[in-house]
Amino acid sequence: MKTFQGRVVAPGTVSAEALVSHGGLNTLASFQKALQFGDKNATCGDQNNPDLYGRQMAGKALCLPQTIGSTTGGLVIYCACAMGRQPACMLFSQPIDSLAGAGVILADVWLDGESTKMPVIDSLGEEFLSYVKEGMTVTVKDGGVVEVE
Amino acid sequence: MVLTKEQQAILDGAEGEVKARVMETVVRYGELFGAQRLVPVTSKYNHLVTSFGLKMMTPVFDLMQQLIDAGAVSGQKFSVDPRPLDKNVPANFLQKLIFNKFMYSKQDSYEAQLKSLGLIDDNAFTCTCYMDEVGNKPQRGEVLSWAESSAVVYANSVLGARCNRNSGIIDIMGSIAGYVPEFGLLTDEGRKATWIVEIKTSKKPEAQLLGSAIGMKVMEEVPYIKGLDKWLGTELDDAACTYLKDFGAATASNGAVGLYHVENLTPDAKELGESLIKEGARVYVIDDAELKRVYDSYPVIWKNADATPKLCFMGCPHMSLEQLKSWTDRLDKALAETGNKKVVIPTVFTSSPAVIAEFEKTDFAAKLKNMGVIVSYICPLMYMNNPLCGKMPVITSSNKLRTYTTARYYTDDEILAQITGGNCK
């Protein structure tokens, strides 16, 4: 087991199976089809992301460097949370980007109810992303502590 | 973050719970990126990125309704990105069914919400709101709360306004609050270049290809571009602005560029020159071979790479008046050479309603129509944003459209040859 320290963007604790994107997550391309056509598993639809394409994102500990793509990215994250199809948590190795940051803040401020919650930690470092592998168990604790085993 | 008394009062609920949440959103967004204070939004108009009544966005529409019901609307009127539908654009029965019944079934109700929130008028749907004909053109130094990436990079770079690469919804939150957090591209330090790009091509580089190359290299950083004034001149005339519109959209979509400086041409670079370059800036040299390498790297994701194109989209971002006129002339000449009277591939030129209205006052409009080209206000990206288009061979010279859809990129010359029946690739 290894422990990493990051910054809390959205609070909360959770334990979930890791899903890892080594490249930037294109939020719109990844979530659009799932949100539009009622896929509760939020299957990743981004053909340009070999790490995630076709994988279930809902309920997973989504580990990534940053998000990329359309500036609708933030509202896509907001919609995913509102519809209960968000990952269990989002864990960024780098400081969060402005699009994902906006979506996370919007969801945290405007949505109520446990089903919409998504803890988010950023600045976990490059070692975090090289250490964590798909299928590992990731636990988010208070204060930005992330355990991987 | 240090707030003024007025800002703190809004956050504490002096103007109601919903407005307090709006302010909380803006403050927390700023704190995330180290902003020390909020600064007033000073542009006359705002611009929103969310123009489409996509069913998946129902939570956003619910949020918009909360704002309307609470009277938490902005004093700023706004333009918004293009409409996703236009009956003049070719679509088969199945596509129409999916567009109207499944994807954009919320379009009418969402447009009603936009009117309640402050839409300028029924024609204010375009990604190029900064065109003179549209009239949402910020002045240098003005602070914006925009989100559309191609408009943000144009406003920052060509107009010298100040705006971060915000997400949708944050754009309207900043406008309602009347303040945006001061960080990144709003600061002098954040507008300095960390890349020097040297253009060493043997001819004027294709705007969309050059923007793509720079975007993929520098990602979200600020480039200072040397050698482009050789091809564009030193004045921001219609041709230069049109070039920079397409170039910038490619930097912002193939990368995440929010601001670029062109030596001797764009306003910050003209005033401040190389003092805009940060110490230790990296250098990226672009020559003919580098542009070819970038072009050759684009994947073809059509199901059949050799398929005959069924549709051509030009105008992502929306075409300028200058572009509509010059393309009419180019098509006229090319068709005369090939002996065809009309384009041989269904072709749609997209532009803003206001630019189209001006274009229709000219003789070019009838000429373009006679050559079989459809002029539309649609957003080609939204048109292609459905599963059926994955099977449809669409060509474009827009690197933004290529990036977000299955459309295949060709240079302007190649597009011209294909749609006029010339030397098809």
How would you characterize the overall build of this protein?
The complex is a heterodimer of chains A (149) and B (425). Chain A has helices at residues 27-36, 73-82, 98-110, 126-131, and strands spanning 2-5, 7-10, 14-20, 25-26, 61-64, 67-68, 89-92, 120-122, 137-140, 145-148. Chain A is globular. Chain A has one domain: 3-Layer(bba) Sandwich (Glucose Oxidase, domain 1). By secondary structure, chain A is α/β, with parallel strands linked by helices. Chain A has an 8-stranded mixed beta sheet with strand order 1-10-9-3-5-7-8-2. In chain A, helix 1 packs parallel to helix 2 and helix 2 packs parallel to helix 3 (98-110). Chain A is built from 4 helices and 10 strands. The mean pLDDT of chain A is 95. With 425 residues, chain B is an alpha/beta fold. Chain B has 3 domains: 5-186, 2-Layer Sandwich (Aconitase, domain 3); 191-297, no CATH class; 311-420, Aconitase, domain 3. Chain B has helices at residues 5-11, 17-32, 58-69, 93-103, 107-117, 149-157, 170-177, 207-218, 229-232, 238-254, 267-272, 288-296, 321-338, 353-359, 363-370, 380-384, 399-404, 412-420; strands spanning 38-40, 46-48, 78-80, 179-181, 193-199, 223-226, 261-262, 277-286, 311-319, 347-351, 373-376, 394-396, 408-409. Chain B has a 5-stranded parallel beta sheet with strand order 11-10-9-12-13. Chain B has a 4-stranded parallel beta sheet with strand order 7-6-5-8. In chain B, strands 1-4 form a two-stranded antiparallel ribbon. The radius of gyration of chain B is 22 Å and the shape is globular. Chain B starts with a helix and ends in a 5-residue tail after the last helix. At the A-B interface, helix 1, helix 2 and helix 3 of A face helix 2 and helix 3 of B.
On the 0-100 scale, what is the average pLDDT of chain B? 95
State which percent range the strand residues of chain B make up: 5-15%
Any idea of the CATH topology of the largest domain in chain B? Answer: Aconitase, domain 3
Sum up the overall morphology of chain B in one term. Answer: globular
Largest sheet of chain A: 8 strands, mixed
Work out the radius of gyration of chain A.
Answer: 13 Å
CATH architecture type of chain A = 3-Layer(bba) Sandwich
User: What's the number of helices of chain A?
Assistant: 4
Terminal CA distance of chain A reads 4 Å
Q: What's the Cα radius of gyration of chain B? A: 22 Å
Helix proportion of chain A = 25-40%
CATH architecture of the largest domain in chain B: 2-Layer Sandwich
Cα distance spanning the termini of chain B: 57 Å
List how many beta strands of chain A DSSP finds: 10
Helix and strand sequence of chain A: EEEEHEEHEHEHEE
Biggest interface, chains and residue tallies: A-B, 34 and 41 residues
